[in-house]
Specification:
about 150 residues
């Protein structure tokens, strides 16, 4: 039986080796080393329940219909995604769960935290201090197809 994960790891190491500084930048982004390259002894962990990575807008409406999310595991972004309905996101936010956006850094091969997501005074799902008359969680990719939703 062939070790597919080992082949993927080798290819990733080869790709990172061809990008000067990528390994150092990745270790720094993960919190394993500081700006001077000294070992910190800890990993940067997310304190969010969900991280939104993409969205699907409702046709002709100012609302986002579906949110594609990562669920951090032990404070570290996992690889599995789940599609969550707008109503569920609103419920989670009203329950006080922390939700953030996340962007994929392809050069480093990891997810980076974006902004905090909250409900505006008018009930819109927004990022940071954004206010207006529609959902707005920044510049996230638009989903072409959605999976099962919660």
């Amino acid at each position: 039986m062939k070790n597919h994960w080992l082949d993927r790891a080798k290819k990733r190491l080869e790709a990172e080796a061809s990008q000067p500084g990528a390994v150092f930048d990745r270790l720094r982004a993960e919190g394993m080393i500081d700006e001077r390259g000294e070992v910190t002894g800890k990993l940067h962990q997310w304190d969010a329940a969900l991280a939104i990575t993409a969205v699907k807008h409702a046709a002709g409406r100012p609302q986002i219909q579906v949110f594609r999310c990562l669920k951090p595991v032990f404070g570290i972004p996992g690889t599995a995604t789940i599609d969550i309905s707008r109503d569920s996101i609103v419920t989670y936010l009203k329950e006080g769960k922390k939700i953030i956006t996340a962007h994929r850094d392809e050069r480093l091969g990891l997810w980076k935290e974006g902004c905090d997501v909250h409900l505006s005074d008018n009930g819109w799902i927004v990022c940071g201090s954004v206010n207006g008359v529609e959902d707005n969680v920044g510049h996230l990719p638009e989903l072409q197809q959605t999976d099962s939703r919660l």
